[in-house]
Amino acid sequence: MAWLFSPRGPTLPRQSSLRPMRVGLVAFYVILLLICGLILAWLTLRDYDASLDEARRQNLLLARSLDEHTTRTFISAEQAIQGTVDRLEIAGGVGNADAQEISRELRNKLRLTPQISDIVTVDEQGVVRSSAAHPGAHDIDFSDRAWLQYHRDSTDPRFLVSGPLIGKITATWNIPVSHRVDRPDGSFGGAVVAGIEPDYFNRFYRSLKLPAGTHIKLLRNDGILLLNYPLDTRELGRNLRSANVSRFEQSRQNHGAFYMDSTQSGSDTLVTFLVSEGELPIIVMVTSDLDIVLQKFHSDLLGRAVSALVLILVVSVLLFLLLRQIKRVEQIESRLYLTQFTVDEAPDVILWADRQAFVRYANRAASTTTGYRHDELLKLRFLDLYPHITDPQWQEFWQRLRLEKRMVHITHQRNQEGALQPVEITFNYVEFFQEAYICSTVRDITEQQNSERELRRHRDHLQDLVLERTAEIRTVLDASPLAIMLSVRNTIRLVNPAFEILFGYAASDIIGLPTRVIHGSEARYNELATTIWARINTGGVFRGEIELFRRDHSGFWAMMYAKALVPGDPGKGMITVIEDVTAQRIAAQALRQSERLKRTIIDTTADGFILIDTHRHIVDVNHAFCQVLGLRREDLIGEQPHTIWGEPALQIFPVSLVNDSAGENRLSEVTLVDANGERQPFLVSSAAILDEQHNLEYAFAFLTNISHLKDIERKLVEAKDAAEEANISKSAFLANMSHELRTPMHAILSFSEMGISKASRGEPGALGRYFERIHSSGNRLLVLLNDLLDMSRLEANKMRYDKTRHCLQLAVQGAASEIAPLLSTLNLRLDIEDDSEPLYAVFDQARLMQVVVNLLSNAIKFSPPDSVIEIRYLEQATLASGAAAVGLTVRDHGPGIPEHELDAIFDKFIQSARVRAEAGGTGLGLAISKQIMEDHGGSVTACNHPDGGAVFTVLLQMEQQLTASTVG
């Protein structure tokens, strides 16, 4: 802006260019795109390799876990048959052993090893002598089996895992695990073989929740396929070594894990080949679908690409905005130069002056108007051109402009010849480069003053005309029967006699008062005035009912008509005509209130409402009905319901509705289709409206949307199903865990028995006691596992019962014999009633003994030392169902059961608060006993004896049909 105060006046400077900046930004944008592309490519390659490495590691871990599980399964099978092999060798071979005794022993071992489907002994001729799962299977020839030929020809003392085949007894696929039986002279005396079902492994693999596309193959060291997952029986027993002998041998000779990564072109699998380092010559192959392995990589790649595109888009938008802003700066700079030129060429005089009133800038109009040259103006003071402004006034202008920034002053301008002309000066306060100036725009107002003098002359003439017209209007106002009021700027200026009569004011009293005196309050008047002027300010007429007040403050309703005297100029006032409509309003208001009440009830109800006439045309519907079905009211009015919804409409307004009594509702349920084609259930309440002759005039119906109730009903059913599925899953989990724990426990017991047997042949010592402690502890743990397994079977309704007619006393004697060692250890005595008649009932003797043993074990926990446990028989008893029963009671002399625990102690994992800490237990014995008795149609209950101690009562139906061997 240095040109502003140049003595030579302003010139138009050359515009600057920002093109180099734009080129630099575009180059930076291109480089940024290249860097983002390189980073994205590097990250993609890195993540691809990382995904493959992670898949290899996971497959190797899975293969090692499967190898451990497979080895443990086969070792458990070998342990299950090892004891039988030793016993058969002592007996001199399979042919010399007692087949029935061996079968019973094999059945016990089969119950402890769920992975084995059957255990069979075969003599030296290949004929089956005993079977654990099929006791009646005899004389079946196994001489054609490869495993039998191997044991006949080889003296290898280790067990053999053969290829899968279909069993001759079970007719199902199984993997034979066999062991040679030697005679005392070392010759072949037969074999013991256990069959493992491939489905056992597949159930375990399914429980692992393996990723989709994962395939598992379990091979023998010679390439024979033992099993695969998912199970394909067509592949079982196939030799995979023959497909590629060199590659298979290379894989087998590598100890540990090695990969066959089929990730080359044309292949889409990842294979892990693990050679077992354990006792068994087992090979585990895990195959994964490469597309599934790289699924996360692909999703991450897509996300990264989208992020990069978003980043590029954001940078592109920012670059576009920046380039547009640079262009705008160039335009602003161009406008500034143009503005400077425009100011200099403006037709009005523009002068800049400093605080001492020296002129610092003058445009060309200043030289033309005053007659001074430009350089002469810059040597003058502002006061020389405007002599009526003095120095004190100039300083006053400065102080005022510093606060207000702008002011207007009318004075006279003197030219070079000394002539004066009237001007209007607009002063603006400007600060520039820490300097302050007054910018003055001077305008000639000679013509303006001449126009104002002419306007004043016309105003005086119009005022005379107004006075004449006012007298005429006054005559009209006095003759009007309606109250008329003229108000100007919210003040009453004129009223007629009718106004005085209506409001009780004399004209002299009310004229000059504010208009709000006839209204209730100032706030109400201000609100009304805003509404009125919004209507009449554009030339319209306001009409409305207003509550007004007389001089005595009594209110009344009036119809008010208002019109502006001059539309668009509120200062001219408005004319108001007032008519008293109190009586009409009271009558109309009563009618409207009645209609509004009915309409409000129908419109605000949450239920849908529909009204039809005698021709079954829809007359009215409410908003709730339209909103629920997504239909418009105008599309429904005049239509017939059956043309819209068809047959369901007859359920809303049935034909029999006319014959019903007036006012009596009919309830029904109907399903209608909404605008989106979805079915909506409704509860319908319909009724008829009859005229004076009891003819149908209208019919209406209220429809309640019950979709939410239907959803709640559906969710309750789903919640019930989910709870039942969760309970079944829990029971399956307990059963699987019990099976998995019983297998190693069986091995512990088998080896402890062998240790006790061999230790008893030598000198007695600490080793024998150690084996006895191991065997005792294992038996206690096995009891706990059996309880868990029994509980899971009972919950899944899979407990097997062998119900026949038995004597109750014999079952009790068997349980007493089983618990006798524990009684003698704790110095307790068992008192059994021995003079009662024999009691017979139909039950599973082993399970009833289990119940009695559980009750005696519970009594032992609470009995003090040297006390007595009593068992008494009930010859005549009654079940809760009213059936005749027999039973027994077990009483201890302990502290008894708290009253609030009498029912809870039969729940799972619940123990009485009075049980001793050292007594232990799982809390399952009583729960199992209760379920067993309920499965027999009986019951077990608990109570406290009056003389102390707890009493447990067991009841069985006296006679009942022999049930199937399996309950549930």
Average of pLDDT: 81
Describe the largest sheet.
Answer: 6 strands, antiparallel
Whole-angstrom Rg = 55 Å
Oligomerization? single chain
Structural class: alpha+beta
Can you give the helix content as a percent range?
Answer: 40-55%
Strand content: 15-25%
- State the distance separating the first and last CA atoms: 103 Å
- In total, how many beta strands? 33
Number of helices: 25
Overall 3D form: elongated
The parts where pLDDT drops under 50 for at least 5 residues are 1-15, 255-266, 916-920, 961-968
How would you describe the overall organization of this protein?
The protein is of the alpha+beta class. 45% of the residues lie in helices and 23% in strands. Helix 22 (766-795) crosses helix 25 (925-935) and helix 24 runs antiparallel to helix 25 (925-935).
